[in-house]
Structure to design on (352 residues):
């Protein structure tokens, strides 16, 4: 299968996902309708298998994938690589995380666009969505069926490894897969830089960066840098846009209650926003339900602080302060197709 055929199939996948409800309703393509209904059923019911994957956030993950599959974006992205049909396809073992829905999709796409065979080991937290999505892709381009395999067991023989997990998992992966060419990703966090002049619209965008997926993603903002005497009132009020979602989620509320109890018992000061806690802390990594913040005096101080932990930061967001390829507020959860997890170029790794 040539590169153009692969690209065309992924572009068509994006269009199909975007129009799936209309396709199902009209039943204009009965065989496609069957696989779309199966996917739709998984989207609606995945929370029964993983309570963190509520329907609202699963749908947001689909929107993020649709954005990646824009035809112009894909062509712009792959134009920088010498993609060509391979005489021999490598078998790529992909060990996926399960922190947010279909988090392994970008690796899945990279492997297939590179002309390789995808052998995916799914996280137990996300076992249905990507296989169901792959069924749609295989309906669009049946030749992909020979290139896509999922396994619940130990990985079979592979040529390269892409593995994503926690910091502890990464240490294990580095040891276990040391004899393979590999990409090993650990957990990262994202931070936002505010200067206090942000409009309500801009802060609303930041709220999505913070609150989508209950803050479980590497692209979720877990810390904000703010100027001295920053007023949190507007941000706190806008976070209430997610109040009904968060208050209906018992697992999240248990985490929040636990964090409040620990902080109160240990007399650690924090702001109680209602559905989140805000605590002054130097670390970019924060527990579920807690957002860290840190005051800064000037941008030179900011850069000194960030430079110490760049390897652990996925995204830096700001509309005013430009440091190290910052993204605009509201962009972290909807990455461009050329933005790589942990900033490691997956496609270059695959085509070497």
């Amino acid at each position: 299968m040539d590169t153009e055929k692969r690209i065309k199939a992924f572009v068509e996948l994006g269009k199909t996902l975007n129009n799936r409800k209309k396709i199902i309703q009209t039943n204009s393509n009965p065989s496609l309708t069957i696989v779309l209904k199966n996917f739709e059923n998984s989207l609606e019911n995945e929370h029964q298998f993983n309570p963190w994957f509520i329907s609202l956030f699963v749908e947001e993950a689909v929107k993020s994938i649709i954005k990646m599959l824009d035809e112009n974006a894909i062509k712009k992205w792959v134009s920088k690589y010498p993609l060509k049909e391979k005489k021999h396809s490598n078998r790529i073992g992909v060990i996926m995380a399960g922190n947010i829905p279909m988090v392994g999709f970008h690796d899945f796409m990279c492997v297939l666009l590179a002309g390789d065979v995808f052998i995916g080991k799914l996280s137990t937290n996300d076992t249905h969505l990507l296989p169901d999505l792959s069924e749609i892709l295989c309906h669009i381009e049946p030749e992909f069926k020979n290139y896509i395999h999922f396994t619940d067991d130990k990985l079979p023989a592979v040529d390269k490894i892409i593995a994503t997990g926690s910091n502890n998992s990464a240490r294990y992966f580095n040891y276990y897969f040391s004899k393979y060419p590999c990409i090993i990703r650990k957990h990262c966090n994202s931070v936002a830089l505010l200067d206090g002049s942000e409009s309500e619209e801009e802060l609303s965008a930041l709220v999505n960066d913070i609150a989508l997926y209950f803050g479980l993603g590497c692209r979720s903002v877990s810390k904000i840098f703010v100027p001295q005497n920053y007023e949190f009132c507007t941000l706190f009020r806008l976070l209430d846009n997610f109040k009904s979602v968060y208050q209906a989620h018992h697992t999240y509320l248990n985490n929040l209650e636990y964090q409040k109890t620990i902080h109160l018992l240990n007399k650690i000061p924090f702001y109680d926003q209602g559905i989140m806690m805000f605590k002054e802390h130097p670390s970019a990594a924060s527990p579920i339900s807690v957002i860290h913040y840190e005051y800064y005096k000037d941008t030179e101080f900011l850069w000194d602080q960030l430079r110490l932990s760049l390897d652990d930061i996925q995204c830096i967001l700001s509309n005013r302060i430009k440091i190290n390829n910052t993204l605009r507020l509201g962009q972290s959860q909807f990455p461009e197709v050329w933005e790589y997890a942990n900033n490691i170029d997956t496609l270059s790794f695959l085509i070497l």
Summary: Residues 3-187 form a domain with the Aldehyde Dehydrogenase; Chain A, domain 1 fold (CATH 3.40.605.10).
